[in-house]
Amino acid sequence: MRRQRTRFSSARATRGLAAADLSAGMLRETKVLHLRRAVAASFFFATVSLSLLVLFGDLNSRRFFSTFHYSYSLSSIFPSVYNDPVATSNEYPLEKVLNDAAMKDRTVILTTLNEAWAAPDSIIDLFLESFRIGDRTRSFLNHLVIIALDQKAFARCQVIHIHCFCLVSEETDFREEAYFMTPRYLMMMWRRIDFLRSVLEMGYNFVFTDADVMWFRNPFPHFHVDADFQIACDHFTGRFDDVNNKPNGGFNFVKSNNRSIEFYKFWYSSRETYPGYHDQDVLNFIKAHPFITYIGLKMRFLDTSNFGGFCEPSRDLNHVCTMHANCCFGLDSKLHDLRIMLQDWKHYLSLPPSLKKLSVVSWRVPQKCSLDSLRPHDAPERSPEE
């Protein structure tokens, strides 16, 4: 009798386990089915959303996406730097970005970028190309930090470069081309000066370069060893310490010390003394100010034979380090002449050494960047009252 009960209990237990296995199997199948449906729904949503993006345009579609909060987002299925929240926000603080890019002596190369100059085949691509085709300049890309002034510029930077920082706030989002001397242009220029001051306070030396400055050779051997602040010129008089030089804020090398920090604070505060002027004009007004002598700042001006531009080109390609698309108005004009400049440089590089020494090649620019409308260098310098 006991054996019968034991066999009966064993059979019942076996049936119970089988039922449990069947129930567990059905539960797993149900979960898989739900997961498949969820994935299918996510792909369906992504496909419909992508169609809406094309149909209604980028701006309206992004507003459409922002109203939904699904666990399966479009960016997780179709990755895009413009839809990825990580790609449009700083992953690291400025200190880490600068530290990663810095040379052994804590020097970094900085440029700023907005959406207008960040588009494919625009200024930033020509800028980076100049480093790649320059004479031993490619390695400087490891020390270049691109400071994006809007989210789209930051997203593009992350695609094309390794060191990027997004300098964006509600009142300073410079997406569009900032036309010369407009309020947007002035705000962008002064925001740049204040940011550079903060870099100095963090203990970093920097070479600041506009993105429309082409790098063809290593500039460091041509910098003045004893200078705290040295800057390129629209016009160079021939003397490195002559305050009658016409400096251009698009290219300068600054060492981090108390003198340079105080100078940048003074420069930035002088925007209130000379309202309506951009940083370069104000620098012209204050370059001989007694305060600069008081703080002991050593200011030097860079020779245009090495650091030229459309205002005053470096005529000998054997000595040129950088060329700036200054004295030029309008993005299309800059792009046209910068492309020709890069072609001229490539042609120079293709020459045999004997022809290079003869300086048989020179720039074919400026062309569209006409200098006809510019004031002659010997005309009186504009005063704040004019």
How would you describe this structure to a colleague?
This protein is α/β, with parallel strands linked by helices and about 375 residues long. It has one domain (about 90-370): Spore Coat Polysaccharide Biosynthesis Protein SpsA, Chain A, CATH 3.90.550. The protein is built from 13 helices and ten strands. The protein has helices spanning about 1-55, 60-65, 75, 95-100, 115-120, 125-135, 150-160, 185-200, 260-275, 280-285, 290-295, 330-350, 355; strands at about 105-115, 145-150, 165, 205-210, 215, 230-235, 245-255, 300, 305-310, 320-325. The strands form two sheets. A seven-stranded mixed beta sheet has the order 3-2-1-4-7-6-8. It has a three-stranded mixed beta sheet with strand order 5-10-9. Helix 9 (about 260-275) crosses helix 10 (about 280-285). The longest helix is centred in the N-terminal third of the chain and has 55 residues, at about 1-55.
